[in-house]
Amino acid sequence: MDNILVLSGAVCRHPERSESPAGIPHTVLTLEHRSMQQEAGLNRQAYVRMQVVLSGTVLHQQAQHLTLGNNVRVSGFLNRHQSGSGQAKLVLHAQQIEQLS
Length: 101
Prior knowledge:
This is Replication restart protein PriB. Helix content is 6%, strand content 63%. It is mainly β. It is globular and about 50 Å long.
């Protein structure tokens, strides 16, 4: 079952680029999303900051020109990451990225 999440927002931290021991390029972005949503007939402000991982040559090349403040739309899947200190967080693993500005 494919469950795809789509998130748009502004890059709010400088992208971090690295390479795995297997030679796979990775780019990590932090996106900030703000919007007004309808819930139970009322307007509600939605706000989230989420880390986005782009893995592989194609996505890494697409992210080469992304900088702080760029607006993007990312689609992919959520996964749980655990830091070295044991703290867990949700991370969006990108399958597609589109620069909006």
